Amino acid sequence: MGVPFEALIPYGIIITMFGVTGAGLTAVKYWSNDWKKPRWNRDLWDRVMMERDMRITGTPRGQSSNAEAPKGFEVSNPWKLEKRIF
């Protein structure tokens, strides 16, 4: 006994919706990373460099070829102070 084709329509809809949401998520990630592939396996060095790029250019993926830091960069120290308990 065969399966009626009407039973396959919901499965087609489900598979299509998974494909649409996957493509949408990929597009949003690509768009939010300044039209570059999303980064993966980031370590501490990568996070520090992303913070530096954010302070220089305003985007975590942007880079600048200027030899001098922008105005105001000398006071935006990235070092975090640790709280001491006395």
TrEMBL record:
Q: Name one GO cellular component term.
A: mitochondrial inner membrane
**Which residues lie in coiled coils?**
none
Subcellular compartments: Mitochondrion inner membrane
Sorted alphabetically, which keywords does the UniProt record give?
Electron transport, Membrane, Mitochondrion, Mitochondrion inner membrane, Respiratory chain, Transmembrane, Transmembrane helix, Transport
**Transmembrane annotation, as ranges:** 12-32
| Signal peptide range in chain numbering | none
Q: What is the topology of this protein in the membrane according to its UniProt annotation? A: Single-pass membrane protein
The main location is mitochondrion
List the InterPro entries hit by this protein, alphabetically: NADH_Ub_cplx-1_asu_su-1 (IPR017384)
Q: What does this protein do?
A: Accessory subunit of the mitochondrial membrane respiratory chain NADH dehydrogenase (Complex I), that is believed not to be involved in catalysis. Complex I functions in the transfer of electrons from NADH to the respiratory chain. The immediate electron acceptor for the enzyme is believed to be ubiquinone.
Q: Which family does it belong to?
A: Belongs to the complex I NDUFA1 subunit family.
Q: What's this protein's name?
A: NADH dehydrogenase [ubiquinone] 1 alpha subcomplex subunit 1
